[in-house]
């Protein structure tokens, strides 16, 4: 198995790259979906969140009230760390199991872990060791424009979203490969195809 960590800031074009790699044959694992799975009703993760933050963050149907939890942790760094301490190990365990299943099904599988908060998660000592880290990068102004035009956010909301994540400098510092997505979707896909075509060489050089 060849494990790729794929990351990028909000509205960077990361989803375009992830989808294209999947179309070319990669096994795509969505960290956002795993983050939802580990706090689903009946999980130990949800129980731990209720114990730490109170039942006010649990919706009437027993699911996580994300808006309520978001309000609790919005300006509280200690609370965010407490939440991460609950969810990150659970996500790590679940993702490891999925990776193992992919490797068992095909020892030569190329697995792409689509993870927006890779920089933040790397602070955890048990996080995955990737064979390759790919960062999809676009300028802050490009991303703000996309958030305003495509997602209907105000400029102020868009800037806040960008500022709540790791900086471009922090992401680029961990990159083995950078895909520049400032241009058209077609240009981003062209770069992604070039990366895919050279992955066999990268994988063989690892051995």
Model description:
The protein has 207 residues and is an alpha/beta fold. The chain has one domain: Rossmann fold (3-Layer(aba) Sandwich), CATH 3.40.50.300. The protein has 10 helices and 5 strands; from the N terminus they run βαβααααβαβαααβα. The protein has a 5-stranded parallel β-sheet with strand order 2-3-1-4-5, sandwiched between helices. The model has no long low-confidence stretch (mean pLDDT 92).
Label the CATH architecture: 3-Layer(aba) Sandwich
Question: Cα-atom Rg, whole angstroms?
Answer: 18 Å
Total DSSP helices: 10
Task: Provide the number of structural domains.
Answer: 1
Instruction: Return the CATH topology.
Output: Rossmann fold
Unreliable spans are none
Give the N-terminus to C-terminus distance in angstroms: 11 Å
SSE order: EHEHHHHEHEHHHEH
Strand-residue proportion: 5-15%
- Share of helical residues: 55-70%
Topology:
Layout: E1 2-8, H1 14-24, E2 27-30, H2 31-37, H3 44-53, H4 66-73, H5 77-105, E3 110-114, H6 118-121, E4 132-137, H7 140-151, H8 155-163, H9 168-173, E5 177-180, H10 185-206
Parallel strand pairs: 1-3, 1-4, 2-3, 4-5
Helix pairs in contact: 1-10, 2-5, 3-5, 7-8
Question: Gist?
Answer:
By secondary structure, this protein is α/β, with parallel strands linked by helices.
Salient structural properties:
single chain; 207 residues; alpha/beta; Rossmann fold; five-stranded parallel sheet; 10 helices; 5 strands; 13% strand
